[in-house]
Amino acid sequence: MPIRTGKGMKPMTSRFHIKKDGVKPAVSSPRDWYRLDLSAIVYPTLQRRDFSSVYRLSVLLKEDIRPEVLQQAVDIALKRFPTYKVCIHKGLFWRYLEPNNRPGPFVRPDIHNPCMPMHFKSGGRYLLRVYYYGKRISLECHHCLGDGTGGMCVLQTITAVYLRLLGAEISNGYFVLNVNEAPDPEELEDAYMRYANALYCPPRPAEKTYRVRGTKEPFHTFNIIDGIMSVKEVAAVAARYNATITEYLNSVLLYALLNKQNMDFHLKLYPVRIAMPVNLRRFFPSKTLRNFITMVYPSIDPRLGNYTFEEIVAQVHNYMRYYINEKFLRGDITTNAATTRNPFIRVVPLFLKDIVVRTFYRKVQDKNSSAGLTNMGAMKVPEDMKPYIDRFDIYMGQPFSSRTNCAIISFDDTLTINFASCIMEADVERHFFRKLVEDGIHVKIESNRTFDDE
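Structure (tokenized):
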């Protein structure tokens, strides 16, 4: 993805040489197939020409990428992740993942519009892609393989192997897994089913929310706007509001969406709600590299009156404290699992399940939120890997409907906020970053698009 970056660095070849012996790949016991996890069941169903549940993770190194070495690293590292080296198949009642031993995936130069739809029978039938551009390595994954935590393990392990092939001494730890070890069986599990044991299934929010209206871009145009800032500055501002960074940035996005709704022509106001994934590994012990997230929905209802920004922060703060805990999250997991456990639904043919899920998502689920926001938090890497890394990026991918999605990630003192949308207007992003600047945060903007009006 060609974007403007800072000053160049010395080429990596001036410091390292490629090891001839490489790295010994992991050996794991083969399996015939893998069930899709509880979240993954939905994503292939929603696949269509202009939408694919693909997300992107990127790492920006300090020296230019050598593609031939990167390809070696991908070939070595991916053998450590059997649930990512797969292809997807249709059964009579469910889809499933099958080990993929075809050549690939092959590293490619980056493209202007990332997160393109991923066709299940092309590209060697792999459900991931690896790109390079300048100093950047990017991994794109279909969400049926896993969430951002699993994808980050794949990306960081590939990056560590790449640096080792160039002569660096990189330890294992955090998201860097040992490629010489067989996977822990817990890494392959559907962790949802282990914890879906509450005695009650809480209902879900079903009220229609404010939807961002914009001019849809031609297929497949993917507009990206990155805001780069200091973690210390953002943390200091959040502390002034007695909030965490996540609570503060959720509040800023709600504030931006409220401003956008007030700008639009409307006959009546609607609640503004954000769909925010929560990493369940924080509350339920699991090593799974597959999906293990659930959604919470912080919201503001302007029909109750005008909100100051301080009131928005207070409401988000209290919402997070009330809902993001082990008890509520366990209930949410149980609600999600109830459908797949129903013996009558289990025997319904797949094509009928697809029709019902698509209709429900389009008519109900997609209308439950005004935007998406995910925060992967502070990335940790082994200490001996830090000197080679500048920053990380994360993109949620093409939204299902005409709106914007926001993703947040930090490394050391660099916090990156990545907006991605498929509409021409950038009003929400403009309101968002203006509020940060008003609060005294210095923001550097990068984008793959131009703005003629500014």
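The CA atoms of residues 44 and 144 lie 7 Å apart. The first strand starts at residue 34 and ends at 35.
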